[in-house]
């Protein structure tokens, strides 16, 4: 073999040994390894659901492989080596400014969630005169099933003093022609990382039922406007879909009228969350 080909052959052999891992581990790669570790820790922290804001996070880079000849070291990829500290700074600065990629805005800028469900109408419910378990399969005076639809809205800033409840409005339509209602109010909610949520609501409602002279087949509400309150417990998955059990009570509390025959409804609902 001619002497002029020896440098070329030596370069080919050294390169093959480097990529096969037979040469010593690359040097000057600690900063790149640290940046890669920080980057992947952030990805795993929130199930890989992130959005990238004004500061873009570069993907992790492989450490620059080096050829060692005696005491000298020649980086195979000097461009990546020079970016070690810059990559670390960008990744560290962006760690606190990353939020889930699935974060979305309310529908039309105001509606955060819509819900719909079915409720057993005027169920037997415990009261101060008769302590008993609620029975959704046994009606009191009125009967049938209520079809419910509801929209919940973004909490405005002025409600912060009330712990930021979401305003809501909805309809309750009875399927056999008994009392139907329309309502509006505020919903306070609490949720956990497991997806379980607990809510309470309070507001006002207007109805189509009897005020007086309705017994024994109809409820005598006493006033056209009623207070509405209740609670809901459920489970939400993917931060979007939710299913829940709801208890709904309407009466005038003997405040708006001396006649005060209220109504309790129990049912199940599905909700779709537009903003999370």
Describe the overall structure.
By secondary structure, this protein is α+β, with helices and mostly antiparallel strands. It folds into two domains: 3-97, no CATH class; 111-273, Porin. The chain is 17% helix and 37% strand. It contains four helices and twelve strands; from the N terminus they run ααββααββββββββββ. The protein has helices at 6-20, 30-45, 78-82, 84-94, and strands at residues 66-69, 72-75, 111-120, 123-124, 135-139, 145-153, 166-174, 181-191, 196-207, 225-237, 241-251, 263-273. The strands form three sheets. It has an eight-stranded antiparallel β-barrel. The chain has a two-stranded antiparallel sheet with strand order 1-2. A two-stranded antiparallel sheet has the order 4-5. Helix 2 (30-45) runs parallel beside helix 4. The longest helix is centred in the N-terminal third of the chain and has 16 residues, at 30-45. The N and C termini lie far apart (71 Å). Mean pLDDT is 77; it is low at 46-57, 69-73 and 93-101.
Strand and helix layout:
Layout: H1 6-20, H2 30-45, E1 66-69, E2 72-75, H3 78-82, H4 84-94, E3 111-120, E4 123-124, E5 135-139, E6 145-153, E7 166-174, E8 181-191, E9 196-207, E10 225-237, E11 241-251, E12 263-273
Antiparallel strand pairs: 1-2, 3-6, 3-12, 4-5, 6-7, 7-8, 8-9, 9-10, 10-11, 11-12
Helix pairs in contact: 2-4
